[in-house]
Amino acid sequence: MTGMTPAIRAAKLREDFPLLSSSQEQGPLIYLDSAATTLKPRCVIDAMVRYYTEYGGSVHRGIYRIAEQATAEYENTRREVASFIGAETTDSIIFTKGTTESINLVAYAWARNTLKPGDEILITEMEHHSNIVPWQMVAKSTGALIRYLPLNSDGTLDLNRSEQYFTPHTKLVAVIHQSNVLGTVNPVKEIVKLAHDAGAVILVDGAQRVPHHSVNVTDLGADFYVFSGHKMLGPTGVGVLYGNLEILDKMEPFHGGGDMIRTVSMNASTWNALPYKFEAGTPPIAQVIGLGAAVKYLSDIGLDRIAAYETQLTAYALKTLREIPDIEIYGDARERGAVISFNAGSVHPHDLSQLLDQDGIAVRAGHHCAQPIMTRLGISATTRASFYLYNTFEEIDLLGESIRKAITFMGG
Amino acid sequence: MDNFRDLYQQLILDHNQNPRNFREILDTDLFLDGHNPLCGDRIKVFIRKEDKRISDISFTGSGCAISKASASIMTTLLKGKTIDEAKKIFEDFHKMITTGEADLEKMGKLAVLAGVHQFPARVKCAALAWHTAMSILNDKKLDIVSTET
Ligand SMILES: Cc1ncc(COP(=O)(O)O)c(C=O)c1O
């Protein structure tokens, strides 16, 4: 961080988030589960209310005022998103329901039509289930094989024997940018190069990266980059697929229906231009507009400031947790995000999170939709605390105290 | 019960730390894995039957305090019971943890789990060992019992 960048003032910024306002009936909410979904600032909620109350028409159809305004706001979000992630054109930005649907779009519309028996899909041991299961389904229907890049014990990817994994058989690489369990930030640019050198297409799951750090898809060079609105202060029900234009152009559509066609005759149809070819039916208009407001909010604050603040919070949280006897923290990557998975002595994560909830602290317990990591670590579950721009150092102190209390209560 | 700490009564904490019948039964082919996919917990229940009675019952595996205590108390209660008696106890227990309705005196030690019904996310924890045991007694030919069915 340069001396010129003013630090985040979380205390002030919290006023933007209705769920954090001190008038909560149950007492203040200490929300440490932003890796699951983030809280929403008032401006995002207002933007969606404004759509419904002031101009709630459909998009791309009406030739009356409110439909034109809805279309303008919807397409404006596409421009905001494109510039937010450094895409060169809005044609490469496809709105989906979320990361999961974005990955499935690629699985159905690209992989199923492209992969042959014996082709290899390379993923990693730290993927979220949404970046495993669709490929298992593709493998089943095409005869392709899935291979896993292994993890080192510190929770980073083991790329030492990359030539054994990136081979002429590798046709698709799908990799998480930032782990939702270990916090690890993967060297995506290096992996893109390995994939492309092997002649493979690469998809990057940016669900945990885009909310927390500036991303430039053009610079990264990935063929597909996917993320969810609800993890970046936006609403649920909307996400993004960024795609390489050449590949998108050649792909068949995912869903058929209205809006994605150019002409429809009784026997056949021709497809609309990008990105509309992949947006069949009436889209989640309010949600897309809400995502636009979220992107603007994040951009106004600045991703660099957010990332710098989260680095401080995470370092403080790691230090606070490590001071507690019997805490085991999973993942120790040098470059990491604001996510910490841990276990406290013999206290089961379910019991721990239930006891923390008694102190108003929301954390996540379980396998975090990443069972291969749990298998790799030889455990069945962890407790996970994750942070965002609205969290404070005081909240981390309270987390530490509450964990100590729970360990004592459970008798170790 | 607003406070979950009230649920973690001494009896539950004790059964969590010192689970009873926490061992394998080797000379039986009645055993089954129970799995709660939501949290990854797995426990295995073993039963030995003689005539129509449960002559021995045990469990192994890992889980939260609620699932371990429930499994532990279950083994102490079902040992020596007839199959029909065991099924009746399960019915009463299941009703208690899902609806809160129960004759607490009759429930005996199980009454400590009465509060679970107020925490829907934990009902499956309390029920895991029981569903597994009942699947064994009902001769269900399963490889694994899952709470997500
Ligand atoms: C890394 C990662 N990938 C994918 C997903 C799936 O996102 P969504 O549920 O919004 O589709 C999540 C969130 O749960 C995630 O953390």
Give me the CATH architecture of the largest domain in chain A, please: 3-Layer(aba) Sandwich
Q: Indicate the overall shape of chain A.
A: globular
* Percentage of residues in DSSP E strands of chain B: 15-25%
Q: Kindly give the count of domains of chain B.
A: 1
**What is the succession of H and E elements of chain A?**
HEHHEHEHEHEHEHEEHEEHHEEHEEHEH
Number of domains of chain A: 2
Can you list the ligands bound to this structure?
A: pyridoxal-5'-phosphate
CATH-defined fold name of the largest domain in chain A? Aspartate Aminotransferase, domain 2
Q: CATH superfamily of the largest domain in chain A, called what? A: Type I PLP-dependent aspartate aminotransferase-like (Major domain)
Q: For this structure, what is the CATH class of the largest domain in chain A?
A: Alpha Beta
**Gyration radius of chain A, rounded:** 22 Å
What do the pLDDT scores of chain B average to? 89
Rough outline of chain B: globular
Continuous helix count of chain B = 6
Describe the structure.
The complex is a heterodimer of chains A (412) and B (149). Chain A is of the alpha/beta class and 412 residues long. Chain A has 2 domains: 10-31 and 302-409, Aspartate Aminotransferase, domain 1, CATH 3.90.1150; 46-124 and 132-149 and 162-175 and 187-299, Aspartate Aminotransferase, domain 2 (3-Layer(aba) Sandwich), CATH 3.40.640. Helix content of chain A is 38%, strand content 16%. In chain A, the strands form 4 sheets. A 7-stranded mixed sheet of chain A has the order 2-8-7-6-5-3-4, sandwiched between helices. In chain A, strand 5 (170-176), helix 7 (188-197) and strand 6 (201-205) form a beta-alpha-beta unit. Chain A starts with 9 loop residues before the first helix and ends with a helix. The model of chain A has no long low-confidence stretch (mean pLDDT 95). Chain B is α+β, with helices and mostly antiparallel strands and 149 residues long. Chain B has one domain: Sufe protein. Chain: A (Alpha-Beta Complex). Helix content of chain B is 44%, strand content 20%. Chain B has helices at 4-7, 10-17, 65-78, 83-99, 104-107, 120-137, and strands spanning 30-36, 41-50, 53-62, 144-146. In chain B, helix 2 crosses helix 3 (65-78), helix 3 (65-78) runs parallel beside helix 6 (120-137) and helix 4 (83-99) packs antiparallel against helix 6 (120-137). Chains A and B meet through helix 12 of A and helix 2 of B. Pyridoxal-5'-phosphate binds at residues 98-100, 128, 130, 176, 180, 205, 207-208, 228, 369 of chain A.
